[in-house]
Description:
alpha+beta
Amino acid sequence: MTNIRVNLRDQLAAQGHVLTGNLSKSIIFEVEAGPKEVIGHMLAEDYGVFVDVGVKASRIPFGGRGRGGGGKSAYIQGLITFWENRGLSGREAIGAAFATAQVHAREGMPSRGSYAHTSTGERTGFVRAAIEAQLSGMQATIENRVGESFFFELKTGADNAKIIFTT
Length: 167
């Protein structure tokens, strides 16, 4: 399963999600083998699911009411930290955070402008892309060891992300 973790990290980088490397470093992939199924669990930083599936504009936690008190939200603080990691500081980082929040509230995440940072043309779906790149090898391994073919199912969501292979 090391190959899957490496491929997940490669997909993150190709999609342009590499600022601090924290999400990539946090990826752990565990496998449970049962008599009729093999279940892979991917564990990562909580925000990884939002990087993978995106966020609709209507779900962005920013009302756009200016800076009065909004800077205390975890969302705005996260954006300030993002811009600080990109080299801005003080008022510049705060201004960039609010500008980004306004774009996210209008367009969702990923925003149209963020596609400039991808080499694949994708900004979401890194989990599916990584798994699909490994499917033929996984299928051959399972068929050689067990003598059966398998069905692939990927379940994702804010509360649930698992990969199921059944024979």
